[in-house]
Design goal:
By secondary structure, the protein is of the alpha/beta class. The chain contains 9 helices and 8 strands. It has an 8-stranded parallel β-sheet. The N and C termini lie close together (12 Å).
C-alpha cells in the first residue's frame, strides 16, 4: 500500500484521462492521494476539493487549498475569505502548498512573505497543518532561511506542524524542520543522479517522519523521467527510499502510509488492499 502525499491532478495535462490515471494508481497499490489546491491561481481555490468530492472509484482523494508563492501578488481579501470558507470542508486536510520561491520570483519577495504569514494565520484558525513549498535562488539558501524563520515565528507555536513537500534542501534544513514538528516528503527527484543531497537527507530522517509523493505531473522519477508524472509512479520513489534505508519497497509504502494517516488524523485507514 502506498500514499501519494502531494499531486496536482486538476490541470489540463490530466483532463483527457484522469479516470485512467486514478485506475493505474489503484492498480499500483496507491490507496490515497492528497491533491494540491493551488490550481492556476487564487481564482481556482476549490480545484482540488472538486476532485475530492467527485472522484471516480479508486484511491481515496483528499484536498488542500492555498495560494502558491508564485501567485502571491494576486492574493486579495476576497481570496482569503474564500479560503476560510472552503477550509471548513472535511475533505480539506491541509493548507498549501504555501511558502517562498526565490528562484523564479514570480511575485515580489516581500509580497510572498506577507501572503505566507497571512495563510499561516488562516491555517491556525482552521486548525489545519501546512504544506510548504520552498525554493531558494540559485546557489543560495536564502528562501530556506526566510521560510524556516517565518515558520518559527508565526507557526511553530500552533503545534499543528506541516510538511516540507518535495524536499530539496540540506541536512541542516531538514533538522530544523523536524525540530519544528514537520514531516519531510520526498518526490521523484530523489532518483536523479545529481540529487545526492536529497539522498543524504533520506538516510538521516527518522522513518516515522517521512512521506513519499509524486508532485504530478512534474518530476517523474527514473525510469519515467521526462514523461508526465502520475500517482502510480510513487512506487519508484518508494523503491529508491527502500534502497537507501535497507528495507523493502512495500515496507516503505506501509510506513509512509501509516505516517500520512496518523499525521492528518484520518480514521479511515484502508487495509493493505486499497480496492477493498
Amino acid at each position: 500500500m502506498f500514499v501519494d502525499s502531494h499531486c496536482h491532478l486538476d490541470g489540463p495535462r490530466f483532463q483527457s484521462d484522469r479516470d485512467q490515471v486514478l485506475a493505474r494508481a489503484q492498480q499500483a497499490g496507491v490507496a490515497a492521494l492528497l491533491v494540491i489546491g493551488n490550481g492556476d491561481g487564487p481564482d481556482d481555490l476549490d480545484c482540488a476539493l472538486k476532485l475530492a468530492e467527485n472522484s471516480a472509484p479508486g484511491p481515496a482523494i483528499y484536498a488542500t487549498l492555498g495560494i502558491h508563492p508564485h501567485e502571491a501578488r494576486l492574493a486579495s481579501e476576497e481570496h482569503f475569505a474564500r479560503m476560510k470558507q472552503l477550509a471548513r470542508n472535511p475533505k480539506v486536510i491541509a493548507w498549501g502548498e504555501i511558502g517562498l520561491d526565490y528562484f523564479y520570483n514570480h511575485s515580489p519577495r516581500e509580497v510572498q512573505r506577507q501572503v505566507f504569514i497571512r495563510q499561516m494565520e488562516l491555517a491556525r484558525d482552521a486548525e489545519l497543518p501546512i504544506v510548504i513549498h520552498c525554493r531558494p535562488s540559485e546557489s543560495s539558501d536564502d528562501a530556506w532561511a526566510d521560510c524556516l524563520l517565518l515558520i518559527r515565528e508565526h507557526w511553530a507555536s500552533s503545534g499543528l506542524g506541516g510538511v516540507l513537500h518535495c524536499f530539496t534542501g540540506e541536512k541542516s534544513h531538514a533538522r530544523t524542520a523536524l525540530d519544528l514538528g514537520f514531516v519531510i516528503s520526498f518526490a521523484g527527484n530523489v532518483t536523479y543522479p545529481k540529487a545526492e543531497n536529497i539522498r543524504e537527507v533520506v538516510r538521516m530522517v527518522p522513518l516515522d517522519r517521512m512521506f513519499i509523493e509524486t508532485d504530478s505531473p512534474y518530476l517523474a522519477p527514473v525510469p519515467y523521467r521526462g514523461k508526465r508524472n502520475e500517482p502510480a509512479f510513487v512506487v519508484e520513489t518508494a523503491r529508491q527510499l527502500s534502497e537507501l534505508r535497507g528495507i523493502s519497497r512495500e515496507e516503505v509504502g506501509r510506513i509512509t502510509s501509516e505516517n500520512f494517516y496518523r499525521f492528518f488524523s484520518l480514521t479511515n485507514h484502508p487495509s493493505a488492499n486499497p480496492g477493498s
